[in-house]
Amino acid sequence: MKSLTAWAAALALAGCLCAQSPNAPNYTAAGLVNGASFAPGLAPGTIVSLFGTNLSWNTCVLTSGDLAGGVMPTSLCNVEVYFQSWPAFLYYVSPTQINLLIPTSLLPGTFNFWVARQGTAGPVIQVNLQSAAPAMFQMSATEVVATHLDGSVVTNTAPATAGEIITLWATGLGDTTPAIEDGILPATAAWISQLDQFGIQLNGTALDPSAVLYAGVAPGYAGLYQVNVRLPDTLPPNPQIRMTLAGTMSPAGAILPAE
Questions:
Q1: How far is residue 113's CA from residue 167's CA, in Å, rounded to a whole number?
Q2: From the CB of residue 135, how many other CB atoms can be counted at a distance below 10 Å?
Q3: So what's the pLDDT on residue 19?
Q4: For residue 98, which of 120, 65, 76 has the smallest C-alpha distance?
Q5: Cβ atoms of 83 and 103 closer than 8 Å
Q6: CA 154 to CA 87: how far, in whole Å?
Q7: For residues 54 and 145, is the Cβ–Cβ distance under 8 A?
C-alpha cells in the first residue's frame, strides 16, 4: 500500500504532466538570459529576459498602479514566474517574452525554474545563479548605454571624451550595502558589496579603482545599477568596455562611443 507521501508525489507529478498541453508556456534554459546583454549570466537581483511561446495571452507592462506599497508585482497578466518556491518580480509579459527580476534574497546555486500562466505550468528547467553577472545595457548590438553628467546619451555624435565623468547602466552587480529588500524600488543610493572586486576595462586595460566614483543601485529602479566613472586623460576612440566583478566579466564586444 502506498504511503500518503507517495500518493501526494504521484498526484503532483500527474498534475505537472497534465499541465504540459500544447498551449502551455513553452521555453528552454537557453531562452533565459541576462536582460542587459541578452547573453548567459544570471545572479540574484538581476534583470533577466525569458524568450519562448505561449508565455502569456496578453501583453502587460508594469505601471505605477501595479506597485503595492512600492513593491513590484509577482503576478502580471495572470502570469507568474518561480525560482523553486520564490516568485520573481515582473516588469513585462507578452506571448513571447517576459522581463523579470530575480529575487535578491536567493543565494548562488541551482534552482528549478518555471512559468505559470493562469494555473497552467510550463516545463521545469534548471538554472544556475552566480554571485554576480555583470552586464551593461546596450542601445545597439555593439554600443553600451552611457550618459553624460547632464543626462544626455553618449552617442557617436555626442561621444564621451577624455577625463569626462560618465554614467554606465548595468544589472547583475550583486548584493549592496545596505541590502535592498526583494522587489522594493530603492529610494536612496546603495553601493555594491563587492566593490573591492569590481573593475572597468577599456580595450583590456583596467582603469584605476579611484576612477569609479560610484557603483551601486540606481535609486527608483529595482535591479538597475549605475556606475559613475571618470574616463582616463588618454582615451582611445570607441574602446571596448567591460565590467568585471568577483572574477566574472561582462560580455565582450561592446564599445563606448568616444573620441
A1: 33
A2: 32
A3: 41
A4: 76
A5: yes
A6: 36
A7: no
146 by Cβ neighbours in 10 Å (0-12 / 13-18 / 19+) ranks as buried
List pLDDT tens digits, range 29-73.
999 999 999 999 999 999 999 999 999 999 999 999 999 888 999
Cβ atoms within 10 Å, residue 183: 23
Report the predicted TM-score, pTM, of the whole model to 2 decimal places. Answer: 0.88
Q: 139, 131 in Cβ contact below 8 A?
A: no
**Which H or E run includes 9?**
helix 4-19
The DSSP H or E segment spanning 12 is helix 4-19
The C-alpha torsion from 52 through 54 and 56 to 58, rounded to 10°, is: 110
DSSP state of 178: S
| Cβ proximity of 245 and 170 under 8 Å | no
Of 9, 41, 27, the closest CA to residue 82 belongs to 27
